[in-house]
Here is the input.
Amino acid sequence: QVQLQESGPGLVKPSETLSLTCAVSRYSISSGYYWGWIRQPPGKGLEWIGSIYDSGSTYYNPSLKSRVTISVDTSKNQFSLKLSSVTAADTAVYYCARRIAVAGQFDYWGQGTLVTVSS
Amino acid sequence: DIQMTQSPSSLSASVGDRVTITCRASQTISSFLNWYQQKPGKAPKLLIYAASSLQSGVPSTFSGSGSGTDFTLTISSLQPEDFATYYCQQSYGTPYTFGQGTKLEIK
Here is the structure.
């Protein structure tokens, strides 16, 4: 069964860059599928941030596009998220997930990591 | 962006009840509609994909239907472990968007 695990700092200062990594195990990230990031502010709903294909093609939410970079490292079997110029509004649980290409569902998720933006 | 609207926002029900949650898209999305269950402190879990296909390992008490703009998630007989928040998500086009969630509580 595919496993995903997020890692990164739990606290980021305003105006700095949030950086997270998602390590994938029991599946080769270069074997296809899309890989994505979704976030959930405390007590609120889910927001898709963006996705990347194993070839490196990326798709971002227009609301975040100017601040987001998603990249993949096939040698480490992981993909990463960078979100620049963060504010308190970026405080959320960040999830990484695998997306099926045809129907578009997110079938495997990481456990999530809380990132707080505060000075 | 395609807006997804769920109703109701919250629902109280008893074990054994039949429950239906509705999701409406702001434009047609064919059958590109997925349902997730989320329990407190946990990641969402995929229940239904492509509007009506049951994800492997999900109990058959869960079912989905609909196409175009109107969709439903039905739980035929509520079990204690089904009390959670449910989200619909459209995968018709980017940005992929989720409904606001339906919190299912024990009556």
